[in-house]
Write a structure and sequence with these properties.
The chain has helices at residues 69-82, 145-159, 187-197, 277-296, 313-323, 327-340, 344-360, 364-381, 387-413, and strands spanning 2-7, 22-31, 34-43, 88-97, 109-114, 125-128, 136-137, 165-168, 201-220, 223-239, 249-261, 299-308. The protein is of the alpha/beta class. The chain has two domains: 17-59 and 101-299, no CATH class; 309-413, Tetratricopeptide repeat domain (Serine Threonine Protein Phosphatase 5, Tetratricopeptide repeat, Alpha Horseshoe). Strands 2, 3, 5, 6, 7, 8, 9, 10 and 11 form a nine-stranded mixed sheet that branches. The chain has a three-stranded antiparallel sheet with strand order 1-4-12. A hairpin with a 2-residue loop joins strand 9 and strand 10 (223-239). Helix 2 packs parallel to helix 4, helix 6 packs antiparallel against helix 7 (344-360) and helix 7 (344-360) runs antiparallel to helix 8.
Length: 415
C-alpha cells in the first residue's frame, strides 16, 4: 500500500538515514539463516544521536533477492532527468515494506538485551599522522557503545508501533572479559529472561566490533584537516521458544566516512568538524540500530514515481486528479484516453499512468497487468535502448517486487 504522495517540487532533497549524505555503494549476500549486509557511506555532517529526521524517510530494503530500492530510485531519477522532464511529472510516495525476518504472529512483546563484552581500547583504531607513511595503533574508548546500540534499537522498534511492547533489559548479560568469544543465549537463559520481563521473544546483540582509521591531510589556521573511516560489524539474534533451534541471525557490516577539521571548540560549525573516534562509534551504533529496525518490523520508505503528461483533455484531467490523490477517477480518465487513442507510444504512456494509479490503490496484480501492456507497447513503438523502454522496465521490476512482497507484508500486518 502507499500512504502518501508528495510532489517532488514541493519538498527539498532528502538526506538518507541519520547521518550520511551520499550513499556510494551497497553489496549484500545471504547465507542460510544468516543475513549479511555490507554498505559504505560518505558522511560530512554530525547529527545528534538518536534523532530520526523523519520516521518515514527512505530506508534501504533488505529483502533477499530483490532489487535495492535506493538503486531503483537513483536509476529512475537518472533516466527522467537525463531524458528531460518534458511530458513527465515526478513525485515521491511512501510505501510500506515488510520486515526481513517474519516472527510468529503471537510475538507481541520483545526484549532487547546487550550480550557483548566491551571492546578493549587498544583494539581496532589506527591513525596516520601528518608526514607519516604508515598507520599507528591508537586507543579509543568503546565505553557504552553497545548500550547506545540497544537503546536506539529499543527506541526505533517502539516508534514503528508494530509490537505491543518493546523493552530494554537494564543491564548487560556478559560479565567476562573475552571480547572475541561469541556466546549466544542458551534456551534456559532465554526463557529466564522472558519469564522475568513477561515478553514473548528476545532480540540479543551477540557481537559488536568497531574500527576507526584516521588520516591527517594538512594543517590550516592551527587546525588539522583529516578524514576518518569507521566500520561496524554486529550480529543480532532473535530467540523464541518455538524456533526449535533455528535462531535467525542478522549480520550487519557498515562503513562510514567523515572529513573535516579536528576542532573541539564549542563555537565551531558542525559541518566543518570531524568527530572523534568515540563519537564516530556512537553514530555507527545508532545507524546500525536504525537499519536493524527494518529487519524486525514493517516500515515505510520513500520512493520516486512519475507519470506522463500529454496535450489531451483526458490526460490533463487525469493529471489533476492524480495531484489530488484521487486515483480511482484518474484511472478512469487515463483509461478513456487509452481506449480512444491509436498511437502506440501515447497508449504506452497512458498504460504506465494506469499502472501507477493501481499501485497507489494497492492493487498490485492489476498494476502489473497494465505495466506489462505498457512495456509491450513501448517495445513496439520505440527504438532499442530508448529511455522510455528503460523507464518502463525499471518500473515493471519494481511493481513485481512489491507484488511479491505483498503476501509477506499482509501476513505481518494482519491484513
Amino acid at each position: 500500500m502507499c500512504k502518501r504522495v508528495i510532489l517532488l517540487n514541493k519538498i527539498t532533497p532528502r538526506l538518507n538515514n541519520f547521518i550520511f549524505q551520499l550513499s556510494i555503494t551497497m553489496r549484500r549476500c545471504f547465507t542460510g539463516e544468516n543475513i549479511i549486509i555490507r554498505k559504505i557511506h560518505v558522511v560530512t555532517k554530525v547529527f545528534p544521536i538518536f534523532e530520526r529526521p523523519n520516521k518515514k524517510v527512505h530506508k534501504t530494503n533488505f529483502t533477499p533477492n530483490m532489487k535495492k530500492l535506493s538503486l531503483f530510485a537513483f536509476a529512475m531519477l537518472s533516466l527522467i532527468f537525463l531524458g528531460g522532464c518534458a511530458g513527465i511529472q515526478l513525485m515521491t510516495i511512501e510505501t510500506q515494506e515488510p520486515a526481513q525476518v517474519t516472527l510468529p504472529a503471537n510475538v507481541r512483546s520483545i526484549l532487547i538485551v546487550d550480550n557483548v563484552v566491551e571492546q578493549p581500547n587498544d583494539v581496532g583504531h589506527n591513525k596516520k599522522s601528518l608526514g607519516k607513511r604508515d598507520y599507528d595503533r591508537v586507543k579509543a574508548s568503546a565505553d557504552s557503545i553497545s548500550t547506545y546500540y540497544t537503546e536506539a534499537l529499543t527506541q526505533f522498534l517502539s516508534e514503528e508501533n508494530y509490537f505491543d511492547r518493546v523493552l530494554l533489559y537494564d543491564k548487560p548479560l556478559r560479565s567476562d572479559n573475552n571480547f572475541w568469544e561469541e556466546q549466544p543465549l542458551t534456551p534456559e537463559k532465554m526463557n529466564e529472561l522472558r519469564r522475568e520481563t513477561n515478553t514473548d521473544a528476545v532480540i540479543s546483540l551477540d557481537k559488536l566490533i568497531l574500527q576507526t582509521d584516521w588520516t591527517d591531510f594538512f594543517m590550516q589556521e592551527g587546525y588539522m584537516y583529516a578524514n576518518m573511516t569507521g566500520k561496524i560489524h554486529s550480529i543480532l539474534r532473535a530467540y523464541l521458544p518455538t524456533m526449535e533451534g533455528h535462531i535467525p541471525a542478522v549480520q550487519f557490516t557498515d562503513s562510514m566516512r567523515w572529513e573535516g577539521f579536528d576542532i573541539r571548540d564549542e563555537g565551531a560549525y558542525a559541518d566543518m568538524i570531524i568527530p572523534t573516534p568515540e563519537q564516530a562509534m556512537k553514530q555507527l551504533a545508532v545507524f546500525a540500530a536504525e537499519k536493524m529496525t527494518n529487519v524486525f518490523a514493517p516500515h515505510w520508505e520513500m520512493q520516486n514515481r512519475w507519470y506522463y503528461t500529454l496535450p489531451s483533455a483526458a490526460m490533463r484531467d487525469g493529471e489533476a486528479l492524480a495531484k489530488d490523490k484521487n486515483w480511482t477517477q484518474a484511472i478512469e480518465k487515463w483509461t478513456a484516453f487509452y481506449r480512444s487513442e491509436n498511437n502506440k507510444l501515447k497508449k504506452a504512456k497512458a498504460a504506465t499512468n494506469i499502472a501507477l494509479g493501481y499501485e497507489m490503490l494497492g492493487q498490485m496484480d492489476t498494476a502489473y497487468e497494465w505495466i506489462t501492456i505498457s512495456k509491450q507497447l513501448f517495445d513496439e513503438s520505440t527504438t532499442p535502448g530508448s529511455l522510455d523502454r528503460k523507464r518502463v522496465e525499471l518500473y515493471m521490476n519494481e511493481i513485481a517486487r512489491r507484488r511479491d512482497n505483498s503476501n509477506k507484508l499482509n501476513m505481518q500486518t494482519g491484513q
